[in-house]
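Researcher: Please translate sequence to structure tokens.
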Amino acid sequence: MGKKNRQRQAAKPKQSAFWTAQRQQPSADDIGNVIITAAADTVRGNTSAAKECANALARTDELTPLLQRAAGLAGQHIVTRVFRNGWLPADIHEAARRDVDQFAVAYLLDVIAEYLLPFAPATVDETWRAQAAELEIAAWWSRSEPHLGQWAAKHILTAVETLITVIEALALLIKLPQLELIRPLPGAAVPRAHKHHNVDEKMLARVRGLLAKAESTGFPEEAEALSAKAQELMTRHALDRVLVEADADTEDLPSARRLWLDTPYVDAKAMLADAVARANRCKLIFSQWGFVTIVGDENDLDAVELLTTSLLVQATRAMVASGKQSSTRSRSFRQSFLVAYATRIGERLTKATEATIAESADAGRLLPVLASHQAKVDKVFDTMFPTVRGKSVSVGSGEGWHAGLAAADRAQLDARRPIKGS
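Model: Translation complete:
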């Protein structure tokens, strides 16, 4: 008998021990605890825990109503804790798509949909509602029947396959660390007070148009000039806004937002996001899970997200176009390229912002108002992240560094230069 077969035979008594120890039929809570235990064992490195538990629970390859209820209870118990630990729907989705298969991702979206069912929309924060809408999170299943059986039928999975998916999805949730609570939980949100200003949709539409052109052009100079024009528009709008808020004494308190970064070279990409954040009066912290948390007012956060997303596309294109030699395709070269690109773009964005402030007719009034605004951002940031540590990013390729600087230098970020189509 092979080693794996001996292990399976030895595991059989353990699989059935739960059932034989019961004098009566186990409750849904009992079975839910078994599912959670298997998920926790998976997190601890037991690669066979999910399969063994699924085989034990679905002994007749059937998802009984009791088993379905148990899985639902387990999912809601864990996801409730995860949300209380600061995770948002989009955060769970981003973590899941990096760690588990498409079935587990789909299952987790349904777990979130079920979590949201009891809450009146007015008590759900607008960020939660926006993320749920973007991810198409909705209770699509018939409420007259348990969810899990309908979900399994939709994805054409057997009972055992379904339970393995459930356990692997819950294992992901279990290992998610505690984060800062940056938005109120469903049921606790209250409508925001009426603002004296609104997002300038025409300005945002123009910015999005400029950035779309920057991403589609094959000419680096034009791409970076279009990005500079977008930065100028956002800065002018922001400066007008802070002056109005100062006069009205109704400045919004800083908020926070997470932006997930795709691998590889996440550290270097976080540097680019930080450069954009600093140029737009925000502060940023990087998490090893692959996201940055940005603190600033809502309009500035919109600007940072828009420009960072676009510049990441442009930086990647410039990096790929920098050369065809094997040395320029190495990890060291590309990491160094992106670090240099982020450094130089940060310098140029900051200069563009400073120039816009200097050219303002109210430059004298702006400086103390911006200083007050920055103090509020700093205070919120320090409260949320009291133990921030600096992080260095290595540069292992001089060739990549100089290529990255050259790519950023070709941008010639002059927001006042003529921009075709702007």
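Researcher: Any highlights?
Model: The longest strand covers residues 255-260.
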